[in-house]
Amino acid sequence: MNFRADGGSEEERGRLNRALVLSAALDLIDRDGLEELSMRRLASHLSVSPMALYNHVPHKEALLEGVVDQILGEIDLSVVEFDDWSEVLKSGFRSFRATLLRHPNAVPLLQSKVIVTPDSLRAVEVSLATLQRAGFDARRALHAHWTLVGFTFGHVTNCLANPMTNPGVLNESVVGNELLGPETFPSFHRCLPHCLEPDFDASYEFGLEIIIEGLRSRLLAE
């Protein structure tokens, strides 16, 4: 194999491209977790030398930024075809939630990584444009957008790491514990069956509808 001083072999340079590198990195994150991703492990996953990667991403930080860009590019923006602004927002944020749930290991990365690229801004632009078209000024549109983003991130995080939906935790911590019995916490115990079999889709729709109806009421009041 003919290796070059500028990174990788001729064969590796020929078959690698940026999209392939980012897709492989996201595969590793999905499979093994964000903390397990390294340039060396990614190179091994692609069966190339580590130096071959640097022709497409200059360093790991750029790799992570590219992964974020790729994930955000999965959000379905065809919802702009709807006439009703509330349907545009509901469909768009449902797609955002579905994207996060497809890549649960990448959620912390999406919450912390700040990148400004065309792909990262398209979904934001659709949301803000929809809110402004509905009648919100720029400041209130931003507040509404942040509310929807925060709710969606929080809901997904709760789905992925809520100990109260874990039967083992509930059985160990609650069931049989006299201090936490139904006589003292009756409302909580009435909700327990729903913790054991949570319907997160219904929960998200419940919250999304409340936010949208609140926004609609705010518009009507102004």
SSE inventory with pairings:
Layout: H1 10-15, H2 18-32, H3 39-46, H4 50-53, H5 60-72, H6 85-102, H7 107-112, H8 118-134, H9 138-161, H10 167-173, H11 186-196, H12 200-221
What does the model show?
The chain has two domains: 10-58, Arc Repressor Mutant, subunit A (Orthogonal Bundle); 79-162 and 198-221, Tetracycline Repressor, domain 2 (Orthogonal Bundle), CATH 1.10.357. It is built from twelve helices and no strands. It is mainly α. It starts with 9 loop residues before the first helix and ends with a helix.
Classify the fold: give the CATH topology of the largest domain.
Answer: Tetracycline Repressor, domain 2
Rg computed from alpha carbons, rounded to a whole number of angstroms: 22 Å
Q: Which architecture name of the largest domain does CATH use? A: Orthogonal Bundle
Tally the helices: what do you get? Answer: 12
Number of strands: 0
Helix content: 55-70%
Mean pLDDT: 88
For the record, what is the CATH homologous superfamily label of the largest domain?
Tetracycline Repressor, domain 2
Largest sheet: none
CATH class of the largest domain: Mainly Alpha
Low-confidence stretches: 1-7
Shape: flat
Classification by helices and strands: mainly alpha
Describe the structure in brief:
The chain is an all-alpha fold. It is built from 12 helices and no strands.
Features:
mainly alpha, 2 domains, flat, Tetracycline Repressor, domain 2, Arc Repressor Mutant, subunit A, disordered N terminus, 222 residues
